[in-house]
């Protein structure tokens, strides 16, 4: 894994990412609320539970983007030719 990804993972696990709640705790900001939801913006809230972001499908977009990156890495490891940047991989929902 790239060092920045490892750093992000470690900081997210230990709640050390600069969410608004952490910035308030660290004395860098005065308001801990989420600008979209108006609830408290914690690391968990940012990464997986903001109701506004969930309703807009932003997590789904991020999930599919990560799946495409994973598919590209697997294709490279298998020695397959990458599809052109104009083609897209279609992911379907379960069921």
The helix fraction, in percent, is: 40-55%
What is the chain-wise order of helices and strands?
HHHHH
Count all strands and give the number. Answer: 0
Summed up, the helix count is 5
Radius of gyration: 17 Å
Quick one: overall form?
A: flat
Largest sheet: none
Which band does the percent of strand residues land in? under 5%
Low-confidence stretches: none
Question: Averaging pLDDT over every residue, what do you get?
Answer: 79
Instruction: Name the structural class.
Output: mainly alpha
Instruction: Quote the distance from N terminus to C terminus.
Output: 32 Å
Tell me what you see in this structure.
The chain is built from five helices and no strands. By secondary structure, the chain is mostly helical. The longest helix is centred in the C-terminal third of the chain and has 20 residues. It is flat and about 50 Å long.
